[in-house]
Amino acid sequence: MKSRRRRRESTASCSTVDPSLSLSPSSGGDVDRLTELPDVLRLRILSLLPLKFAIRTGALSSRWRDFWRYRWPQPSIIDITAPPSLSQSQVVSAVEDFFSRRGRGRGRIDVLQIIFSPSPRHVSDLKRWLDYAAACSVSDLHLDLSPPNHFSDSSRRRRARAAAAASPILNFNCESPTLTRLSLRGFHLTSPPPSFKKLANLEILNLCEVYLSYASLRRILANCPLLRALSIRRCPDLKKVVVPSSALRLTRLTVVDCRKASEVLVTNLGLRSFRFSGPLLKNYHIESAAALEDVYISSGGAVPAMPRGDLVRPLGKLANLKVLTLCSLALEQIGALSARAEVGFRWLPNLVELQLLMVMMTESNLSDIYTFFKLCPSPKLEKVFVELPMNACDSSMKTYLEVPKEEPPKGGFNNLKVVKMSGFKGHLHETELAGFLLNNAGILEHFVVTVSLEHIEGECENHKRDLLQYLTMQLSMLPKTSAKADIILTESDDLQFRPVHSQI
């Protein structure tokens, strides 16, 4: 039976999807009734399904794959990207003509992307396009109104002010009850914001470079009860992020580079993924921290003095955590919490993957790593990724404040199979960490080392080759417990070994 099914699918894979309709099933051997339905019936089935379920039918067989794209007579995936060669008036005229020929409300729109930076006099045209999308029951909307990047001033603050002044003001309104995914970028959201009451089925919301207040965000969340993923990136005016308890289905929260955001408060009980990158938070709280499975915490560079608030204490015990990324500052604070005998990170029984983002690699930083492994036993840990600092100087050659040296722990890596160290330069503390991991991982399979040669001028090819040979010899001399551990030294990033948090 399995062999006959393989023959059917291999035969089907040789054909391509034909948008023309057939009224009779294909002839052949054994009949798979679902796969061999006539095209008109398959399209009828797809037209009754929401977009995400229509796409999933591609798993049935090769004849269903990508067939969802033909479920509407008119184009259902529309990309409006204004080319720089056309004036805004020409773009508006072309779009209006296309929508007129397509017809209003006659065919649903699965995906609509608009990349257009309207002048004030064309904002009304943009609103008309959004009304058209709502009338066509759009499911996935991407709206990017970012102004062209012509700000060459060297001051970052001045560039930010210029971008804010050039970004249009929009009273966003797309009342489509079928909208499940919404991405907004590059404009000022009017205050008070729209109610979003007609977006009760919204599941995914991405806000990038959108100028909005805390009150605006709170009002949006209050009107999207089915929201399960919220991403907020580079929103300059947002001072805090508050997820109310009414957001029952929100499971993923991402906050990246919101420079004024100093508070993150999550009071709902369903959060499973929390990813934060940006300035140090003054205050944050996650009500359901014990349920988290995925955590990313990065607060940039080193802090000259002890921060005003703890970066890791609000997370508490993370019994369900599977994937974790920590920056140097977070590691430092974990050690500080243990010194004060306060509750911080502790037993991580289900942690499978750990990534460490090291801004510096001094003796103190190495001690912080050892402290983490002592305080947070992770019996199921399988993968460790270490991003080493990009600076070429060996920090071990400099003099720092005297700190007690933390002795490395023994054992604790019984399931560790993959280690990757990126930006390796062969410095003392980098090599010591590599030796510690090799010596304590009994079943290690792959030890990947990505070498950083950016600090060597391009003309010194012989120097680069000699350095690679030296590093290879240096790593080969380190004692390793696992006889089958394969040490891989490479100049390029190996895509085979990428952390879950390679992109946030």
Polypeptide structure, described:
There is one protein chain. The radius of gyration is 27 Å and the shape is globular. The protein is an alpha/beta fold and 504 residues long. Residues 1-29 and 302-308 have low confidence and may be disordered. The chain folds into two domains: 119-150 and 157-292, Alpha-Beta Horseshoe (Leucine-rich repeat, LRR (right-handed beta-alpha superhelix)); 297-303 and 311-493, no CATH class. The strands form two sheets. The chain has a 16-stranded parallel β-sheet that branches. Strands 8-10-12 form a three-stranded parallel β-sheet. Strand 2, helix 5 (123-135) and strand 3 form a beta-alpha-beta unit. Helix 4 (88-102) runs parallel beside helix 5 (123-135) and helix 8 crosses helix 9. The chain contains eleven helices and 19 strands.
Helix and strand arrangement:
Layout lengths: L1 H12 L25 H9 L3 H6 L20 E5 L6 H15 L8 E5 L7 H13 L4 E5 L11 H11 L2 E2 L10 E9 L14 E8 L2 H9 L6 E5 L6 E4 L8 E5 L6 E4 L6 E5 L5 E4 L7 E5 L24 E5 H12 L13 E5 L5 H13 L7 E5 L30 E7 L3 H13 L5 E6 L9 H16 L9 E5 L14
Parallel strand pairs: 1-2, 2-3, 3-5, 4-5, 5-6, 6-7, 7-9, 8-10, 9-11, 10-12, 11-13, 13-14, 14-15, 15-16, 16-17, 17-18, 18-19
Low-pLDDT regions = 1-29, 302-308
Judged by helices, strands and strand pairing, the structural class is alpha/beta
**First-to-last CA distance:** 44 Å
Dominant shape: globular
- How many individual helices? 11
Average pLDDT figure = 81
- How many strands, which pairing sense, and closed or not: the largest β-sheet? 16 strands, parallel
- Give the amount of beta strand, in percent: 15-25%
Spatial extent as radius of gyration: 27 Å
Give the SSE order as H and E letters. HHHEHEHEHEEEHEEEEEEEEHEHEEHEHE
What is the domain total for the residues? Answer: 2
Number of strands: 19
Helix content: 25-40%
